[in-house]
Each structure stands twice: as structure tokens, then as C-alpha cells.
Amino acid sequence: MKRIAIFASGSGSNAENIIMHFNRDEVAKVVIILSENRDAFVLERARKLNVPSHLFTMDELNDGGVLMVLKAYDVDFIVLAGFLKLFPKSIIDIYHQKIVNIHPALLPKFGGKGMYGSRVHNAVIESREKESGITIHFVNQNYDDGDIIFQAKCKVLENDTPEILAQRIHALEYEYYPEIIVKLIEAL
Ligand code: GAR
Q: In whole angstroms, how far apart are CA 1 and each of 23, 53, 77?
């Protein structure tokens, strides 16, 4: 059974969905949730779901402290789920092609620094796009830039608000992110 670490900065609804998936699926289990944000609701979700969590500083992310935590928990695979900071080269090199991120739009459009959550949906609506979707990709040292693994699309409707579009995108994320993680882990 492979061991997954999830990094999240905010609400953590994807983190919860992935934890629940791997409570049923014996391919892997989520062994730790990590966050740089002490107010992140994902920490509350982790407590309720009995998954250990670790709050870290940006110094710890970059100077090897977080890597030590990943080693201590014997982590095989890393999932970013609403994690908003850049990952350091030291961790990317060790977990080569074993770190994935999900982005709430069809990359390479609407990605990059500062493009997260409702800002992405705002930009999609303001550009009058007819469709949006999700992108699951490997993580490299730039924002939203690694090799694309999977995309799924949905419509953007005339009267969509960022909140309504976010709901449609979240539904796609819940449907596909665990499934793609399973495929990647089975191929390790
Ligand atoms: C998700 O929609 C995810 O795609 C997005 O943040 C949201 C987190 O929601 N990630 C990014 O925008 C990364 N650039 P959650 O905390 O409820 O899972």
C-alpha cells in the first residue's frame, strides 16, 4: 500500500474527498496532511478524519524540514490540492514525477502565479470562454507548468457567477482526481 501526503492551503474539500476515497481503496492511503496556513480549514478536516497533520513555515518547506517530515512518514506520492506555494527543487528532484497538482481551468490558459480559486473562475468568465474544466499535471518549479496528465471539460453558461462555475469545477475535481491518482500510483 503506497503512502500519500496531501498539501493544501485552504478549505481542503478535495483533500477530504481523496482521504475518503483511499479509506475504501487499498491501493494507497493518505498518511499526512501538510499546510503552511494555520487557519486552513483542511486542518480541521484532517482532525475529524483522524489523519495526522503538519503545519510548516516557508523556511521549513525550502530548507529540508518538510522533506524530513515526508521521510518520517515514509511518503511515496505527493498530492497538491489547493496548495498555493511553489514547491522547492529539492523535493521535486527526490519525488520525480510523483508530485501532482490540480488546477481549476484548462491549462495552459488561466494559470500562473496568483491564479487560484475564484480568481481563475473570474478570469474565465470575464474572457467569455464557452468552456472551462480541470487540469491534473505533474509539478515542476513553476506555477501550473508541469506536464499535463489529464483534463476534463465543462460548459461555461451565460449567467454563470464565479461561485456557480466553481461548483461545476469542484464536481469534476471530486470525480476525477482520486481516479487519476490511483492510475499514477498503480504505475509506480
Ligand atoms: C480547487 O478548485 C483547486 O483546483 C484549486 O483550489 C481549489 C481548492 O479547493 N487550485 C488552484 O487554484 C491551484 N492553482 P479545496 O480546498 O476545496 O480542495
A: 12, 20, 11
